[in-house]
TrEMBL record:
Reactions catalysed according to its record: dTDP-alpha-D-glucose = dTDP-4-dehydro-6-deoxy-alpha-D-glucose + H2O
Protein name: dTDP-glucose 4,6-dehydratase
Molecular function via GO: dTDP-glucose 4,6-dehydratase activity
Taxonomic lineage: Bacteria, Bacillati, Bacillota, Bacilli, Bacillales
Family named by the database record: Belongs to the NAD(P)-dependent epimerase/dehydratase family. dTDP-glucose dehydratase subfamily.
Pfam families: GDP_Man_Dehyd
SUPFAM superfamilies associated with the record: NAD(P)-binding Rossmann-fold domains
Biological process annotations from GO: nucleotide-sugar metabolic process
EC number: 4.2.1.46
Amino acid sequence: MRLLVTGGAGFIGSNFIRYMLNKYATYQIVNVDALTYAGNLENLRDIEMNPNYSFVHADITDAVKMNRILQSGVDVIVHFAAESHVDRSILNPSTFLQTNVMGTQVLLDAAIKHKVRKFMHVSTDEVYGSLGPTGFFQETTPLSPNSPYSASKASSDLLVRAYHETFGLPIHITRCSNNYGPYQFPEKLIPLMIINAIEDKPLPVYGDGQNVRDWLHVEDHCAALDLVLHNGRDGEVYNVGGNNERTNIDIVKSILSALNKPDDLIQFVTDRPGHDRRYAIDATKIRTELGWSPKYSLDVGLQQTIQWYLHHKDWWERIRSGAYRDYVKIKSPFQ
Ligand code: NAD
Ligand code: DAU
């Protein structure tokens, strides 16, 4: 099996490549990534010499390059490449539309042209919008995205669906909740808070800190994608979630307590505009149809992740000393 993984130098993509190469000795993986601010080939340093792995530096919106790569023969596309950070989408929506919508369309066209056997689209629970205090997102929940990021992901989901219906492209769409774990870029809540706490810097909590996310360890997400890839039904959407609902303030306090740091590092800052209040996933379909269940409890996974960041200071210091610094020093980009 030859897989084309897009966005493999990012957080989930790099974890997925490592997971698949470790599990399937004969699979070949081509990683295509534009190396935006979020793409970091150091995430794959331990496997870059693996003979079953290769890297192509290219932008998914570049149709000529995508067709050239697919010409070399690809069975399955696993599509992670995206602009992924909600706050950045509020500051600059256009790159989100370019990559997440137009880039997906370029890949879909190329997939049809080169008769790819399967197009796996990695999407997000954010396409469903926001929940009140009760209820769960199901695969049938209407799409109701609230940020430019989630609107661009919803648009790409609909394009993938349309290419299945219109052109018969074999597809799966997965919609996952908030991932955490090793190699997550330190702009996202958990790594940002861990690193700031280690460095005794303020921990910026948006609004009242009562927004709820459903946390899933990235390895559990990779296992779910592996199952969908091999056993998923053609044309189907699968929700993936950890049943680990926590308020942001709970997560932040758990991190401070694990690192023996005082709560007064917490700084409440101006809320994110359009901030979704609560996400919660009903993962019954993937559990019952494909036998998936998460291995990590949030308590164990969070401790492991904190240890990882403590032991990989070099990794995040190199990120912090680069372009990221200008972004992160703003306590809340909306003030
Ligand atoms: P990330 O930001 O860490 O990585 C994105 C990767 O895509 C980077 O390596 C970047 O260089 C690459 N990329 C961006 N634009 C590109 C382009 N035009 N051409 C080629 N490569 C490009 O993102 P992530 O957190 O690993 O998320 C991966 C995917 O999973 C995204 O599609 C995201 O929507 C989805 N997702 C993420 C989460 C989460 O919690 N992080 C949850 C559900 C779904
Ligand atoms: O639900 C899946 C989504 O999870 C993915 O599709 C996105 O790609 C991913 O970025 C993530 O989106 P969120 O907006 O939920 O993640 P983020 O880490 O940015 O924020 C998590 C929560 O923490 C959210 O309620 C906003 C809040 N937050 C975030 C940051 C960065 C803060 O309070 N302070 C912060 O500094």
